[in-house]
Batch of 2 targets.
Target 1
Amino acid sequence: MLGFIISFIFVLVAILLLRQDWANITVDAPHSTVPPARLIIKDELSLYTGEADSKGLYLAILGQVFDVEKGMKHYGPGGGYRFFAGKDASLSFVTGDFTDTGLTDDLSSLSPAQVVSLYDWLAFYHKDYEPVVPYATGRLVGRFYSESGEPTEALLQVEAALEQGRRLKDQALAEKQHLPACNSEWNAARRGRVWCSTKSGGVQRDWAGVPRKLFSPGSGRSRCVCVQNSSMLENPNIQEYEDCPPHADSCPVRE
Ligand code: HEM
């Protein structure tokens, strides 16, 4: 019995010591099916730069922390992307601005489409790298996660922009299928022609359509799209080319 009690105390002390070593704060998820997240503060993250005396090699994106030790050649000392190590520089994943001011997690300047590409980077880290604790993502306390590991208002805003960006991307994709871009060619005198075929604008289809100008509302600018049927001609943003018969599949244009 005494042996059992001593072993029990030993295991308990070992667990407590381990927990202290792993994190400044550890928070249990509210639901037992969701693994606990390890919370990290900025100062601690800054120690993970991959330098000889550092604790390891981490980076954060959208407040989620990844162990990028296996990408040492990119993020470690001397690597082409070493400036990502030990911090959350989410903005620069989209802007490509790797200066001190560019390496920030302030995303307020991003458009919804840019937020979508930032989340593509997040998906890349989930796929190619390990979260800092098996089965649990590390979270950086700061702009995106509160001290209790809850999403902040800033993260909720970015997630709303992500939704909007994904919707716009889906709409653009549907429009591309519906109104594919025309083929075009130009000569030195800036005269050219636009025409439709069963493969134009990167869309393979079983119809060719006829060239029309599609105006983007508010900008006054137009681009050539292939229109399949006359019902679309009721769209006020779609106009015929001057000097081109309505059913011609090729029209002369001037830049
Ligand atoms: C917004 C701009 C850019 C960002 C944020 C970016 C970011 C990154 C990151 C994070 C990696 C490492 C990926 C990993 O962990 O495996 C990487 C790798 C790489 N990037 Fe970029 N990159 C950018 C632009 C470019 C450009 C313009 C080029 C080429 C002209 C380029 C060429 C490469 C190459 C060749 C690798 C792989 C290097 C290797 O395997 O040794 N990147 N990039």
Target 2
Amino acid sequence: MRNVLVTGAGSGIGRATAEAFVHAGAAVVAGMRDPATSQPIAGAESITLDVSDDASVALALEGRPAFDVVVNNAGISLSGPVETIAMDLARRQFETNYWGAMRVVRAVLPAMRAKRAGIIINVSTVGGRTPARGYHAFYQGSKHALRALSEALVWELEPFGVRVALVEPGFVATNIFDRGGYEDPPPPSPYSEDEAWVRRFFLAGAAAQAIPASRVAEEIVAVASQERPLLHHPVGADAIAGVAAAQTLSFEDWYESAVARVVSMVGPRPEPAKAGPSD
Ligand SMILES: NC(=O)c1ccc[n+]([C@@H]2O[C@H](COP(=O)([O-])OP(=O)(O)OC[C@H]3O[C@@H](n4cnc5c(N)ncnc54)[C@H](OP(=O)(O)O)[C@@H]3O)[C@@H](O)[C@H]2O)c1
């Protein structure tokens, strides 16, 4: 565990992970969209790395010596109805969480493949294993796609000795929901009451069940040192339970239990306002 890259290292899980690797004695490159606006991480090299920007990724990573560990952590969580979410928001979700990870993977792989060593750890979510909740088609869609990318990479990289793992937390105590605007009322739409109800569930779930970011960081550092890591690493009791439910329930049973869980945490589901198709 010598050269480590962590993306989205300015805050939350990324920062905790960069700090944990420094603590473990690694040489850490901490990718941040704007290092000038983030607190430096003692013992790490902070670099400008916007994973949604081809030129930024190329400038930051091409030609660097092989990383032993690459943690694709940068991510955003936005909520919105399929019918009315602004297209640019839906696209931004994939641009960061999916295409961003792919850009980084493509930039780091030539050196890792040549060295025939290393591990790529993609930070997903339990929502990348479970069916999508309402208003999370794009967040969860991006993480389901990240899972497919990771599965394909296991196949493609096995002959080159490069390992791949997914870390899949449940609720983690970070500012991801504030940054995604969950505290605000959703934009007006025929769905806004229902969407607000789901947003309240996420805020309540995070308040009640979140584990510290350092717990996810510990898991990432542990996975990085494993000779033959499994692909999937759910982190936190809610993530482990969520994966088990997704594996055992039909979609219909899962849906019923998921709605019941929201009701139990934030009260009854609102009735849609009576209105015509064009309201
Ligand atoms: N918190 C949870 O409950 C939870 C649960 C499961 C999975 N996750 C996953 O954990 C990862 C980290 O999230 P977090 O909870 O730690 O939230 P966070 O504190 O908001 O951290 C996200 C980080 O990603 C960075 N980022 C966003 N867009 C970027 C881009 N285009 N290029 C580079 N960096 C970018 C942000 O940088 P800026 O500071 O510049 O915005 C920020 O440092 C995400 O992939 C998320 O999906 C979180």
